[in-house]
Write a structure and sequence with these properties.
This protein is globular. The N terminus is likely disordered. Helix 1 packs antiparallel against helix 20, helix 20 packs across helix 24 and helix 24 packs antiparallel against helix 25. The protein is an alpha+beta fold. It is built from 35 helices and 20 strands. The strands form seven sheets. It has a four-stranded antiparallel beta sheet, with helices on one face. It binds a DNA duplex through strand 17, helix 20, helix 23, helix 28 and helix 31. Keywords: Coiled coil, DNA-binding, Isomerase, Topoisomerase.
Length: 933
DNA sequence: CATGCATACTCCGATTCGGTCTC
DNA sequence: CGAGACCGAATCGGAGTATGCAT
């Protein structure tokens, strides 16, 4: 261990992983990205909750400045090639020869504490593998992956607490890190794969050299490398226990050969009956197939045996507009072919949406529109003269738009019987497509409707947004169906592109869409057994990961110091994926929106703030902004610094030696089927479990439900699931605020009534009669009183008018205006009362039988109301940008929710709406009140 | 105070685009 | 290595429900 004491200590890193440090999500700031085109840099201030256990004392709310949408992202996006060039320079392929000692940074003190284990020379380590693997595990008490959950987490491995940070802030670590790399001769040990060796300025250089011994492995290519990665054969070790463990627990009756692949029952349920346990048979003839009670081990390639369905439903053909409704060009009504008119109509529908203000959208639309116009005979004016449309800005869609709006309104105001008739008609047309018959069972089909034509609404800055999505013809549609069953007839006069019988896929029909060339499918609904089974498998896979997670974390924490750049990047990426729940981040093309995930992060997406803060700011899936300012372990910080080192600059990949394929391949070694996204499922469900465990089993149903939602919210934040705040959110919040104030004023008046009855009370209970600080504002009270007065007036007037209407209707005479005046005199009284009230601070109770007791009970009721309104408002404000649904549907193992409901005696309906109950039927029946993820 | 009714708001499900990952 | 097959995602419109108001 001589001289080998690590400065930043592996032990902290290791412990961080093994005792399950979780995503540091409480630091998360979820804020919607400003999606406007031509992003300007808007500055805004964001509140986010500080880590509760944060020892630095960042309690309450921390203000962060967030910059929205800055800089040209695409501008400097480079090919990944430059990496090669880098290699000759600094860090790449450079073995670490010399060991740099860090002498003067603040971290040193910590380093002393490093455990011996980690300081064992690498060469030796290999031989100690077993120990290495087992020891830390034994020490682990708390496997929780999430930092926020456990207090102790923060204490040990979360060394970088804010206080510490500040203390270290100005130290020269940073400078050191960047300056300390030396150029070393490149090593190209292998022909197949280029490796970059990282020099780690700080510490472990010497051991690295030793470790290079296994370099031989490199020459053997990928496979070898992976297996030797850990001298233990991971893949093998990974599953000392065969499949049995996971899903099958419940199956008592599956005595038929467990390992042989039992394909779906042949024929229609006959085969099924034979190997279906008795209890699975139900009396109903339409017996429900409980696949989760009858788990057949299939290899998964064959998805069905028989399949019957009725094909797809095409949208109605275009209905031309009335002759008087036209697009105008330069003020002149334009006559178009139906095809062109339809496209114009697409836009006409959207003139009041933000799309119409999007330059890319309009440009793409107009280009495609002109093409259609040209191909369909051009545009003419009323006299038949050609109109040559050239400028989008001269187009006036308002006639069309108004027409559509009117149409919609007409539909809305239709009588309910008409609506019903219309719906019945629609249902009838759709009926036969709703279900298919799969392996003899009726299953719901999902999206049997062919997508109608329209304008492509790409999300974010999609280069193709606004392009015309063409009408799909039967000739483009391929049908997939079982052999020997009737093929659904194509629409009259048409043919299918093809009819196939492929039982290795789950789709019933497919076509190619014209915008991106993507393939679209008609598949079964989420409630179907096919989807249900794969959903179930997904969660079982995530649970399987539980068994490997400690080892995986230990490994990547160790490999954060790997000498090979690729390994180190991979480890760092795994850290991010595990801790921050990032997506894998596949490469994307230039004809898509510029969004990234972990592997595709670029220089400009990450900012470092010594000593340990990493700021992520990028657009993820759906161009949803991911912004997080997060403290990472020292080694990760160091690595990020290295990965950002010059000559890398804006546009360059952070992980230039890593891609998702490599990453997933590596993960496969740990566990079959493991890929990056499993971590999201795992961490989400795990977090949920931890959160639910904290909920006390007391209190009202409402409280429990609220607590459940809070847990759900934490998961949603972890996964960065956002939603746009509704346009009227602010006004709604204001309304609620006013409402609460009004209630408070009511309360005040009740108290004043008490004082009227028993003035001496004020001395007895001064606290009770202290002014309510929330409405301790004379002008507000006056305004409020005024508005109450106005309301009253309005009511009286309205009532008066209504009465008159009725009188007129009945042929009688209207009441005189003087009558109204008379009635309005009450208002004068009211105003006088207010005045009196403001003067004396008491209110004469209106009701005869008013007693102090009655008033007090009314006050209590008001208090409840106020509290409810306030908590509701708080929740709404807190959830305005957080979408809970996505995690509930896709990431949180439904059995957790079922467990929660059973254990806490909450009805499942409260937690799962109908469709989810159906989708998760398997979970409803297989989890009890003590089920664990 | 219960009831009926119109309106506001919420929430749900459908939709369709955007990812991941495998072969 | 790109096509293919799925899973995951936010959004949108409408159904359903709460709310407010008059009776």
């Amino acid at each position: 261990m001589s001289g080998r004491a690590r400065i930043n200590g592996t032990s902290s890193a290791t412990s961080a992983s093994t005792n399950g440090k979780g995503p540091i999500l409480q630091r998360k700031v979820s804020k919607l990205l400003d999606k406007k085109i031509g992003q300007q840099a808007d500055r805004m201030t964001v509140d986010y909750p500080a880590k509760p256990e944060d020892a630095a004392g960042l309690n309450g709310v921390v203000k962060k400045e967030v910059v929205v949408g800055e800089g040209p992202r695409r501008a400097k996006r480079k090919a990944r090639k430059p990496a090669i060039k880098d290699e000759s320079s600094d860090d790449s392929d450079t073995p670490l020869q010399t060991k740099r000692r860090r002498t003067s940074n603040g971290v040193k003190a910590i380093s002393v504490v490093q455990s011996s284990d980690d300081d064992v020379p690498l060469a030796k380590k290999a031989t100690q593998k077993n120990r290495k693997l087992t020891t830390p595990k034994a020490v682990i008490k708390d496997k929780k992956p999430l930092a926020l959950i456990s207090k102790d987490d923060s204490s040990d491995s979360d060394i970088p607490l804010a206080a510490v940070k500040l203390a270290k802030e100005k130290k020269n670590i940073a400078a050191k890190v960047t300056r300390t790399e030396d150029k070393k001769p490149a090593v190209k040990a292998n022909g197949t794969k280029r490796k970059t060796v990282i020099k780690d300025e700080s510490d472990s250089d010497a051991p690295m050299k030793a470790k290079r011994a296994p370099a031989g492995r490199k020459s053997n290519g990928v496979k070898k490398e992976e297996s030797s990665d850990d001298d233990i054969p991971l893949a093998k070790k990974a599953k000392p226990t065969p499949k049995k463990t996971a899903a099958v627990k419940k199956q008592t009756n599956k005595d038929s050969t467990p390992d042989t692949k039992v394909p779906a029952p042949k024929g229609k349920g006959k085969a099924k009956k034979e190997d279906t346990p008795v209890d699975a048979e139900t009396a109903e003839e339409e017996e429900e197939y409980k696949w989760w009670e009858n788990q057949a081990e299939t290899d998964g390639t064959q998805k069905w045996t028989t399949l019957e369905h009725n094909g797809v439903l095409f949208p109605l053909p275009y209905q031309p507009l009335p002759k008087n409704v036209k697009l105008k060009y330069g003020g002149v009504p334009v006559t178009l072919s139906p095809a062109a008119e339809e496209v114009a109509g697409f836009f006409g529908h959207m003139t009041d949406t933000p799309h119409a203000q999007n330059a890319v959208f309009t440009a793409n639309f107009f280009k495609d529109f002109l093409k259609v116009v040209k191909e369909s005979g051009g545009a003419k004016d009323a006299s038949g003269k050609k109109i040559n449309m050239k400028e989008f800005t001269k187009c006036d869609f308002s006639d069309m738009h108004n027409y559509f709006v009117a149409e919609r309104d007409a539909k809305r105001t239709m009588s309910s019987s008409e609506k019903k008739a219309l719906k019945a008609e629609k249902d009838k047309a759709e009926e036969k497509y709703l279900h298919c018959i799969l392996d003899g069972r009726k299953e719901k089909v999902g999206n049997f409707r062919i997508e109608p034509p329209g304008l492509f609404r790409g999300r974010g800055e999609h280069p193709k947004t606004g392009m015309v999505k063409q009408r799909v013809q039967p000739e483009q549609v391929t049908i997939n169906i079982g052999k020997g069953v009737p093929v659904p007839p194509p629409p009259k006069g048409h043919k299918w592109a093809d009819v196939i019988n492929d039982n290795t896929v789950t789709w019933l029909a497919t076509w190619k869409e014209n915008i991106n060339g993507n393939i679209k499918y008609v598949m079964l609904a989420a409630t179907s057994s096919l989807k249900g089974m794969s959903d179930f498998k997904k969660f079982e896979k995530a649970r399987e990961l539980k068994k490997h997670i400690d080892r995986i974390r230990a490994d990547y924490n160790r490999e954060l110091k790997a000498e090979l750049m690729a390994d180190r990047q991979r480890a760092t990426a795994m850290y991010l994926i595990d801790q921050l729940a990032l997506r894998a981040g596949n490469e994307k093309g230039d004809d898509e929106a510029d969004t990234v995930g972990c592997c595709s992060l670029r220089y400009e997406h990450v900012t470092l703030e010594a000593p340990d803060l990493v700021i992520f700011d990028f657009l993820g899936k759906d161009s949803i902004r991911f912004y997080q300012r997060v403290a990472v372990i020292p080694q990760v910080f160091k690595n990020m610094k290295i990965f950002k080192k010059p000559p890398k600059t804006t546009g360059d990949m952070i992980f230039d030696r890593l891609d998702t394929t490599q990453l997933n391949k590596h993960l496969q070694n740990y566990m079959p089927g493991l890929s990056a996204k499993v971590f999201r499922t795992y961490n989400a469900s795990w977090t949920m479990q931890q959160q639910l465990a904290k909920i006390p089993n007391t209190g009202s149903l409402h409280d429990k439900y609220a607590a459940y939602n809070e847990a759900n919210k934490i998961v949603a934040i972890l996964c960065n699931h956002q939603r746009t705040v509704s346009t009227n959110h602010d006004s709604m919040m204001q309304k609620v605020e006013e409402k609460i104030k009004a209630l408070r004023y009511q309360k005040l008046r009740l108290k004043r009534q008490i004082l009227f009855l028993e003035p001496e009370r004020k001395k007895k209970k001064p606290d009770f009669f202290k002014p309510d600080p929330e409405i301790d504002d004379k002008t507000w009270i006056l305004e409020h009183q005024q508005s109450l007065v106005e309301q009253e007036k309005d009511k009286i007037r309205k009532k008066f008018e209504k009465e008159n209407e009725k009188l007129v209707e009945n042929g009688e005479k209207e009441q005189k205006h003087s009558e109204l005046k008379e009635r309005l005199e009450v208002i004068d009284e009211m105003e006088a009362e207010f005045k009196e009230e403001n003067k004396t601070g008491t209110v004469e109770p209106k009701l005869r039988g008013a007693t102090v007791e009655k008033l007090e009970s009314q006050i209590e009721k008001l208090d409840e109301k106020i509290l409810k309104q306030e908590t509701d408002a708080k929740v709404r404000e807190g959830n305005k940008t957080v979408a809970l649904g996505t995690s509930k549907i896709n990431y949180i193992d439904p059995r957790l929710s079922v467990m929660f409901c059973k254990k806490y005696n909450v009805s499942i309906e409260k937690v799962f709406p109908k469709t989810l109950r159906e989708k998760f039927k398997w979970a409803l029946e297989s989890a009890d009140d003590s089920w664990e993820f």
